[in-house]
Specification:
Shape: globular
Structural class: mainly beta
Strand content: over 45%
Length: about 180
Amino acid sequence: FVFLAVSCCCALPQKIHVGIWLTNIFGLNEEDGTFEADFNIYQYAENPTDGKLQLYRELPRFNNIGRFFRTTEYPEFTRVQGPFNYRLYLEDYPFDTQTLRIELSDFYRSVDQLIFVPLVNQSGINIQTVKLPRWHFDDGSWWWVQELLPFPDPSTEAASGALDEGLVIRKNFSQIAFSVKIT
């Protein structure tokens, strides 16, 4: 008998479970879609062997946050305060619904290496502290969106903006967005 040792080069991606507890939104500017957000982010890395969650401290990249923001670490979460932006479509205002998003991703590790997983039981809105004049929402007006972000190969002309077609995607990155519906 001959036994062959086979090693798999295809390790499973690391799963980072993320929860956001929104404690305040203020300063919404309808013209440019900017708003200030104050929230707690809970992050846990999943152990691939037994599935147990362990506290994870490396903050993800916030895709739509302004340059200046503050973080404060606590034993179980990190508090994030800062300006965010997300385009508002106000053609039917005030008779429409808008979405404010806090987008998280990791541009260093592709989806083959890292995937964000929403922690629904550690996410939500504190409706007693979040007050947004002229807009309405409730504790059921939030949800998570999981997406893939394509990253173009910089060696192609399309990636530099010269062409609209023929874009060569080098990697896909995991992104999740904590979304809040306001009316």
